[in-house]
Amino acid sequence: MRFDVITIFPGLIHGYFQEGIVGRALTRGLIEVHTWNLRDFSDNAYRRVDDRPFGGGPGMLIMAAPLLAAIATARQANPGAPVIYLSPQGQRLQQQAVQDFAAVPGLILLAGRYEGIDERVLAAVDAECSIGDYVLAGGELPALVLMEAVARQLPGLLGHADSAVEDSFAASGLLDCPHYTRPEVVAGESVPEVLLSGDHGRIRRWRLQQSLGRTAERRPDLLAQRGLQAGEKELLEEYRRQCGE
Ligand SMILES: Nc1nonc1C(=O)N[C@@H]1CC[C@H](O)C1
């Protein structure tokens, strides 16, 4: 998977890929990360890429010309890669879109700054994605969020242990269950005895029940969208009785 990121702060992107799972993916050649510094596409001596908005109003916008030139160059370097603009006005990034993006050979990510970009650039963009309903100073963090979520889907990237987690969450469509590790007692709180029982059937049942209960409590929208499979209604009713609901 080749990622091309158009940004005025390339260091923010490369810096993140020095550590962790995505850093290892880069050194192992599972992913490539290329950045295009928007200022290299500026048509003035001061390397300016922003200007005031027509109609007045606060802040500055990134101009169309450097963006369109950078997109054209990135498309030549990463042929066939969709161009994704990260902005609060975009479609909310969900797991399905992440899996769809992981299926293509490359992505070109456009990281905005200032108040945003000239609207006419969107004609050269294939998708607009938001990572959430809040406003950041730049699109670099959203680009990194998308890159990491996509990279985690790539075969060979996650070790067995991580990929098990990935499958359980992505496949189940539920919030994750609680997890515990040594020591058995922390601040007077012990580990649920079922997890110490060695009875893997009971443990699987308990974990599913906890995921169902948590999702019903915290994200009823997710549960409504997913629905309940055979036997899960009873599990959830038992969970609610145990919680005294
Ligand atoms: N939330 C988001 N999901 O994707 N991008 C954002 C985001 O806040 N972008 C900033 C808005 C102005 C600045 O240009 C960059």
How do the helices and strands line up, and which of them pair or pack?
Layout: E1 2-7, H1 10-16, H2 20-27, E2 32-37, E3 50-51, E4 61-62, H3 64-77, E5 83-92, H4 95-101, E6 106-111, E7 127-130, H5 140-151, H6 160-172, E8 185-186, E9 189-190, H7 200-218, H8 220-226, H9 232-242
Parallel strand pairs: 1-2, 1-6, 5-6, 5-7
Antiparallel strand pairs: 3-4, 8-9
Bound molecules: the ligand Nc1nonc1C(=O)N[C@@H]1CC[C@H](O)C1.
The ligand Nc1nonc1C(=O)N[C@@H]1CC[C@H](O)C1 is lined by residues 86-88, 112-114, 116, 130-132, 134-136, 138-139, 142.
Q: So what's the overall shape?
A: elongated
Helix content: 40-55%
Indicate the structural class: alpha/beta
Termini distance?
48 Å
How much β-strand is present in the residues? 15-25%
Query: Secondary-structure element order, as H and E?
Result: EHHEEEHEHEEHHEEHHH
Give the uncertain stretches in residue-range form.
none
Average per-residue pLDDT, rounded, comes to: 95
Q: What ligands can be seen in this structure?
A: the ligand Nc1nonc1C(=O)N[C@@H]1CC[C@H](O)C1
Question: If helices are DSSP runs of H or I spanning 4 or more residues, what is the number of helices?
Answer: 9
Question: Strand order, biggest sheet?
Answer: 2-1-6-5-7
Structure notes:
This protein has 245 residues and is an alpha/beta fold. 40% of the residues lie in helices and 16% in strands. The chain has a 5-stranded parallel sheet with strand order 2-1-6-5-7, sandwiched between helices. A two-stranded antiparallel sheet has the order 3-4. A hairpin with a 2-residue loop joins strand 8 and strand 9 (189-190). Helix 7 packs across helix 8 (220-226) and helix 7 (200-218) packs across helix 9 (232-242). The longest helix is centred in the C-terminal third of the chain and has 19 residues, at 200-218. It is elongated and about 70 Å long. It starts with a strand and ends with a helix. The relative contact order is 0.12. The model has no long low-confidence stretch (mean pLDDT 95). Ligand 4FV binds next to strand 5. The ligand Nc1nonc1C(=O)N[C@@H]1CC[C@H](O)C1 binds next to strand 5.
